[in-house]
Predict the structure.
Amino acid sequence: MCTLRWLCLRNISPESFYKGSIVIGDPVNRILEFEDLIDFVDVGAMSTAPYLDAWIPVEKELERVKRFLPGILLEVLGSLLILIP
């Protein structure tokens, strides 16, 4: 028997594969809407869209993640695994 696991991908970069997917607002609230359904949160702070010149220095990527992490950690600490590739 296998266990099904759900992964939530959260793009926190202003760049995106699809501009319509960029949502202005609190990224933590979107995760909390599905908290009971997901096991992991994958946080992306830099776009990997192949047609964009979206490379940013690691310091900039960390700056974006640091703004996001406090809110999500306070809300889901212990209930979700947070991945930062």
Observations:
- The radius of gyration is 14 Å.
- The longest strand covers residues 7-11.
- The helical segments are 27-33, 58-76.
- Residues 7-83 form one domain.
